[in-house]
Write a structure and sequence with these properties.
The protein is an alpha/beta fold and 272 residues long. The protein has one domain: 3-Layer(aba) Sandwich (Rossmann fold). The chain is built from 8 helices and 8 strands, in the order βαβαβαβαβαβααββα. The chain has an 8-stranded mixed β-sheet with strand order 3-2-1-4-5-6-7-8, with helices on both faces. Helix 5 links the parallel strand 5 and strand 6. Helix 1 crosses helix 7.
Length: 272
Amino acid sequence: MDMSGKTALITGSTDGVGRRVAERLAAAGATLIVHGRDETRAEELVSRIRDKGGKAVCYLADLSSLEEVRTLAEAIERDHDRLDLLINNAGIGTTGGGAGRQVSRDGYELRFAVNYLAGFLLTRQLLPLLKASTPARIVNVSSAGQQAIDFSDVMMTRGYSGVRAYCQSKLAQILFTFDLAEELMGSGVTVNCLHPATYMDTTMVRQAGVAPLSTVEQGADAILNLALSNALDGRTGLYFDGMRPSRANAQAYDVAARRELRTLSQSLTGLV
């Protein structure tokens, strides 16, 4: 794979599968935009990439804050004249952030805010740069763990469950993928999503107390397939389970549900 002259942004790229994808893209010649919350880990990854002859810069942002997401997008637009690949990978698992229901800095249920809403806003803010760099790709790293969104209680103020919150946020990513793919049809920007691998050996999985079943390398292979495969040129609005096309939860194919989520997301992020 040759990414010479290309620029790629991977959110949550200082740990786990995001880090492995970043290292492999940098090795292929891409200019890496590294994102994370921890400055030490971000700078360590940038140094590692540069020591191997690659190109990388880092930006810090806490995706539980929509203000920081906007600042991140503005900084990338200011500093880069192209963006060929956006991988929305950052997220928190079923137990990340502590026990019980937590909220983001903006007062939204934390998993919905970090796993979905931050990526929605970041993608929307970076669309002009992506469109100016066509052909460009957006990859949303979702999960096979999916549960239909209850639009009467999206923030899960009743009967909270970390697992249900996680699964709802991951399905929201898929609804967004399908909705945006339809909107961008013919623009030169494709949008696809995937479940990379089951219970990879990552911090998120270990925090949940689950024994890993897959390697980070397997997950990276699947993400890079959507990001780079020539077989996917021009193909958009797809959901993959690992390396194979698959079907998501039925709600992802409900046009009315996608419209309702889009309207809600625009309102929550101030994009109306």
